[in-house]
Amino acid sequence: MNRIYSPTIFLLFLLLSCKKETPPAPKPLEIQIVKVLQQDVNLESEFTGETFGQSDIQINPRVDGVIESLNFKEGSLVHKGQLLYTIDPLPFQTKVSEAEGQLAESQARLAKTKSDYEMMEPLAKMNAISQRELIGARSAYNASVAGIKAASANLKNSKIELSYSKIVAPISGLIGISKVRVGDYVRPGAISVLNTISDLGDVRVRFTMSEQEYLRIFKELAKKDSNLKGAGKSVSILLSDGSLYPQKGQISFADRQIDPSTGAVTFEAAFANPDQLIRPGQYVKVQVVTDVRKNVLIIPQRSVIEMQGISQVYVLGKNNKVEMKAVQIGPAFKDSYIVLDGLTANDKVALGGTSLLKSGSVITPQIKEWTPGQAVN
C-alpha cells in the first residue's frame, strides 16, 4: 500500500507547496479632509497704486545766483526753518547798501524841503513871497515824502532778496538728493528744482478704479442696508516683495471727474507711516473691499478639480467613502472659493494632491482645521 500511494501523496504535497499566497488587501489612502466653512466674506479688489508723502514740497530758488553752500545731508531728516542752500549773497548785499544810501538821500531831501516849506508858509501870509513860491515849496516837500516811501520800499525789497539767498526748509521731513552742487548757477522758475522734502508721518496712495466698478460700488453704497458702508475705512496695501503692510488705511477722497482718456476715476487713501517704511514713488497693490457676502460657504481652492469646465470636489460620505460631486463656484476669497451650489455647511471635502483618489474610494480621513489665507494645519 505504501508503494501505491506514496507517489500520489508526494505530488499532492508538491502542488500545495507551489500554490501562490494571496496578497494582503491594500491599505486605504490617507487623505486630508476639511470641513466646509460658513461665514461672512469680504471680497477685495486689487488696484495698482503709487505712494506720495503727506506733503511733497519742491525747493525752488527765488533769486538767481551761484550756489555757495549745501547745509544738509542728502537723504536725512530736516526741520522746518533749517538752512539748506546758500546763494552767493554779495550782489544782494550791494543792492541793500545802495537802497540804504538812496533812503538816506531821500531823508536829507525831505528834511530840506520840509524846512523850506515851513519857513515860507509864514512869509506867504505876510505877502513877503508869492503864492507860486509857496506852492512850489509844498510840492517839493510832498515829492520828498513820496521819495521816502519809494526808497523805503526799495530797501525792504532788497532785504527780502538778500534773505532769499538763504534757502530754508519750509516743512520738516525727509530731504532727497540735491539736483545742484556748489558752484552751480540757479535762477527762479518752476522748472528750477533744487530738491524735494517729503513729510512721511503719513503717506498717500493714489490708485485708479474703472468707471464700471465705481458705478457698481456707488449704487451699492446708496442702498440703506448696504453691507459696504464703512468698507473704505479699511484699505490694505501689498508691498513690492508681496508682504502685507501692517498699517490699515482709509480712502480720503475721489477725484472730481472720470478721466476721459482712460475711463477711470482716481482715489487717494491715507496710511500711517510710523517707521517711515513707505517712501514716495513706490508702486503698491491696493486692496479695497468692494463686495460683502453674508453667511456663504467656502472651500479651499486645492479641493476643487476642474474638468472640461466643470468644477468638482470629493465629498466624504458614510463609512469613509468619498464621492465626486459637481459644484458651482463663485468668486475667489484669498486661497478659497465661495460655493454657490452643490454643498452644505455639514459637508467635508478632500484636499487634492493625488491621482489615486477615485469616486467610491474608501479612505482613511485626516481631519484638518483650516482658515482662509493660512496653510492647512
From TrEMBL:
PROSITE patterns the record matches: PROKAR_LIPOPROTEIN
Localization (cell): Cell envelope
Molecular function GO terms recorded: transmembrane transporter activity
Every Multidrug resistance protein MdtA-like C-terminal permuted SH3 domain range: 295-353
Domain Multidrug resistance protein MdtA-like beta-barrel per the UniProt entry, residue ranges: 203-290
InterPro entries with a match to the protein in the record: MdtA-like_b-barrel, MdtA-like_BSH, MdtA-like_C, MdtA-like_HH, RND_pump_MFP
GO annotation terms (biological process): response to antibiotic
Gene Ontology terms: cellular component: cell envelope; plasma membrane
Multidrug resistance protein MdtA-like alpha-helical hairpin domain sequence ranges: 97-165
Domain Multidrug resistance protein MdtA-like barrel-sandwich hybrid residue range list: 57-191
Family of this protein: Belongs to the membrane fusion protein (MFP) (TC 8.A.1) family.
Protein name according to UniProt: Membrane fusion protein, multidrug efflux system
Native source organism of the sequence: Flavobacterium saccharophilum
